[in-house]
What we know:
By secondary structure, chain A is an all-alpha fold. Chain A has helices at about 1-15, 25-60, 65-75, 80-90, 110-135, 140-150, 155-185, 195-205, 210-240, and strands spanning about 100, 105.
Amino acid sequence: MIAPFFERLNKTAGLNFSPFYDAYDWGRLLEGMWISVELIACIIAVSLVIGVVGAGAQTSKSRVIRFLIAAYIEIFRNTPPIVQLLFFYFGLGAITPQVDMGGWYEPIIGSFGWAVIAIGIFGGSYNVEIFRSGIEAVPSTTTEAAESLGFSNFKIFVYITLPLAFRFCLPALTNNIISLAKTASLAYVIAVPEITYTLSSIWSDNVNVPEMMILLFAYYIILVAMIAKGMHLLEKRLALPGYGQ
Amino acid sequence: MSRSAAPQTDWTPDQPIIALKDVRKSFGHLEVLKGIDLHVMKGEVICIIGPSGSGKSTLIRTINGLTPVTAGSVKVEGQEVHDDKLDKLALRRKIGIVFQQYNLFPHRTVLQNVMMAPVLVLHENKREVEERARSLLAKVQLSGKEDAYPAQLSGGQQQRVAIARSLCMRPDVMLFDEVTAALDPEMVKEVLVTIKELAAEGMTCVLVTHEMGFAREVCDRVYFTDAGLIVESGPPKQVFGDPQDARTKEFLSKVL
Ligand SMILES: Nc1ncnc2c1ncn2[C@@H]1O[C@H](COP(=O)(O)OP(=O)(O)OP(=O)(O)O)[C@@H](O)[C@H]1O
Ligand SMILES: [Mg+2]
């Protein structure tokens, strides 16, 4: 077992990796990791939906829609994500309705929800631009061929433009997804019990800040490596045989 | 069969299947088509020839509504193409078009390229479409390539897939816009053979081409365009053998 090793390490070297021998801290660490992964997955999902819908809407004929999307991108790309998060949580959170939980009241959207919304919308503003550049890379001659075969604009977007645009923008998308995974740690400031928050409560209980910082770094390095690997596999899987060779 | 009822027109097959009347098209200040009259009967094969930039592509694209016209009328089976009320899908299932650059869907296999439109657009039975797609691919000599991706094929092979893809919609008319212009000489022939077979089967074809020998051999009528106008038209024997207009003579002396 690894527990005795870390216990000895604590006693002899004074390096206290409490989660590796203390069942309670171990439970907290796992919980924090799980919530962190959940949070990141939700944020990425929200940002992708916004990216696709926003990029699609940007091709709209309506000036109003195009203006609104441009304004959204400008605002969310040019302000710090932490300011956005605080705005959503404290600004909008204060005016959202509360639900009766049988005696006490809870906001309809909790801190986890606000973190997903705020950071998802932040990441979405980049994804709109990323998808847009992907869409622009799809040759108009290809969509014209689909048009000539009777495809409606919507079917062209779903079956031709989007699959090709997605492939073209995958490298940029990978970068943004990784950046979002890291930005998700900001949820710490509104007390979402994800990994950073969990480890900070462990280190304030055990006074083992450096050790827990090391764990935190290791967690993110491994997580980011896994995302990068996953995206790379996806890129390989979606590669068009013979294309661009 | 999921074919919807044909829109009401008084068109009968003894009238032109394609009829253009005084078609004009401007891009900004540039007038590219300056009053084109052209008609094609069912089963006819017509060729449009002319110098580069004379508006041949623009002309052929007005026939399936890809390029809107500025003035004039384009009728296909009696139906005005440039009418806001027109059912675009009904028009496009009737007309197939093949482009110079093939324009296959690079993320789909050859078979999927051919099957996509009938399945997704016409909602036809997938099995039936697949059967038809396979036999069309066999017809264009591409059996065995069903699962290849477009980028794995030669230009000539890709162009034949594009033809099969159009044919799978069972069109009444096929438009070809310089479909051999991007091909190496040895691949030109295989594509022309395919088109020749189609023509022989009675498919109505409108071809823009630089292959004068082919035009002479296959076409019922040749139209010569220059600077947005049809300068001369007639049976190939006459247009190639005894051109009347000075511009036709000059063009032919350069390309023949
Ligand atoms: N979408 C467009 N916008 C502006 N100008 C255009 C457009 N499409 C074509 N043109 C112009 O219209 C003219 C005719 O073009 P078109 O492509 O119809 O010629 P073409 O006879 O097919 O020539 P080629 O033999 O080189 O294919 C050209 O001067 C071209 O620059
Ligand atoms: Mg052309």
